[in-house]
């Protein structure tokens, strides 16, 4: 078997694997004032948040086309790969991974396994990382997929946004329209349930919402019961991410927290200044 790992640009990838020879990233487009930008190819996070502030129209995202995806798969077949694990953002927030099922058998001699991570961002980057590490260690396809399942079933994310408007207008908050009236004066903590974004708890202030995220992450850490990865992810809010890292590492002295950022695609749906906490098995 010659295996390639494909993921999409919403994965925040650890630096050490970004140039791995068996890793390939398909960019997801964002549309700003009618112009299409491929994430991390045409635009990076820093510039995007600036542009988003100035945009006249509400920003949008879309899925890579079947043509673009098939071109990538075909090129990998030509490079000698016969198997691909295609690791993507949750089917609860984008139809992309589900739609891959209709093209996965299109390239003769190539087995494509679409993998629905039920999440995105740093935990998804960790799934790509774990798959590559296992590949390098000589593990077989079943072993790699079983390990991805362990990470997926132990992944939890809690996050707050500065303004719920983007999530509600983009249609990514389950029951968002029904919730919004009641959420005006509070800071909701959001989470993923069955791959969808839902309200976790209504909290009175940002400070209390952050304390609640720290507490619930600590509880999850005990439940997972094995070494974990702990992530703080920010939407152009590095100062707050650093403060939270210090607090978490003080509270849970046996862990190191890694900081990453939300790129243009997730930034489109969460808006600027979002902050997320994520935990998963190492
Ligand atoms: C599409 O338009 O189908 C592709 C992109 C959809 C991205 C939706 C992102 C939702 C926000 C994710 C929050 C993650 C917090 C850890």
UniProtKB/TrEMBL annotation:
Top-rank taxon, per record: Bacteria
Pfam families xrefs: DegV (PF02645)
Keywords: Lipid-binding
Its biological purpose: May bind long-chain fatty acids, such as palmitate, and may play a role in lipid transport or fatty acid metabolism.
The protein, known as: DegV family protein
Organism for this UniProt entry: Tetragenococcus osmophilus
